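re: ur question from yesterday

yeah so i grabbed the chain u mentioned. its 113 aa long if i counted rite. heres the sequnce exactly as i have it in my notes:
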Amino acid sequence: MAKINLLLTTPPYPVEQTLKVLGANLRTARLRRGLTIAEVAEKIGAGVRAVLSAEKGKPSTGIAVYAALLWVFDLLNQLDEVADPAKDLEGQALALAREPTRARNSSENDNDF
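ran it thru and got these structure tokens back, copy pasting raw so excuse formatting
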């Protein structure tokens, strides 16, 4: 029997809330553009249920559906901004902390053979 993915059934609370907000925002974007769920589903090449699930913020909905909906509404650039490594200050600080504090003199070890 296959193991149940707990992330899909009980995601961390912040993840669950973020997906619900994203879903509500996608629904608002669709309604503001005067599009039906069927029209949007056809544009992204998915079923109506996939769009409905994304608008409800279900964690079992694939990231591709969310990204395609952002694309349809011309909001995909906002996803790029979220994943921008230049804005990951914590990650930059951790990487800097792992770097060596002093460099070896490479001329000392050139002829070690």
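noticed a couple things. The two ends are 56 Å apart (CA to CA). also Helices lie at 6-9, 13-32, 37-44, 48-56, 63-72, 76-82, 89-98.
anyway ttyl
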